[in-house]
Amino acid sequence: MPADPRDVLTRPAPAPERTVAYGDHPDQVADLRFPAGDGPARPLVVVVHGGFWRAEYDRGHTGPLAAALAADGYPVAQLEYRRTGQPGGGWPGTLSDALTGIAALPELAAEALPGRVDAGAPIVVGHSAGGHLALYAAATAPSTVRAVLALAPVADLVEAYRWDLDSGAVTALLGGGPAEVPDRYAATDPRLLVPTRTRTVVIHGSVDLQVPVAMSRDFVTAARAAGSDISLIELPGCEHFGLIDPESAAWSRVLDALRSLHDDH
């Protein structure tokens, strides 16, 4: 593992093969990475990046993860979306971009790579705030999501607000706290949207300082009790960024979980 786990956020990665647009805004785009080798069509893997929904973090930092998934034979789309701190970001643009992009990308990827991409619903891999968006999409537009791999997700917006994760990140996303804009929390908080019928695996490190593992423990317990098809893989000694780093000790567990979701279908 690198000495600084954040190294992955700025590590260079091969350029994507193509960038496609799912809307008119410059951030309504996704970078496509073609699968290595020859083989049958596989479901698209849509990677939704984290960064607490803030403009200073973009899809670039998921380049190493996306390149590694493509090397393993998956067609990959790195979703970009409008974020807080920029026009159209926050409520409702960030949420609507996630839904629109996830729904549109399988067809866009299949057009770019005929015969290698299953144009059906994708597997969505979301990290941190991107994990929130993946869970939100599965809960509110289940026909557009084949399965979810949520890596250290912000799975409970009410608790994230109470814990003041990343100094007001949830307030910036939704425009207020649960007492001020309760309808927005009701519509977007994965913890309030259970059960969901989408197969979901959550992976979380035990020493995560950005998104405490207790959030995933509580979310998965509640979701399973409500009837969701969901499981939690807790990785002892793993922090927040190892889950998106192909050079980390956690990477093999992430790849195994993705393969299991693919094989389930």
TrEMBL record:
An example molecular function term from Gene Ontology annotations: hydrolase activity
Domain BD-FAE-like: 31-220
InterPro entries recorded: AB_hydrolase_fold, BD-FAE-like_dom, GDXG_lipolytic_enzyme
UniProt keyword list: Hydrolase
Region (Disordered) residue spans: 1-22
Name of the protein in its database record: Alpha/beta fold hydrolase
Native species: Micromonospora profundi
Lineage: Bacteria, Bacillati, Actinomycetota, Actinomycetes, Micromonosporales
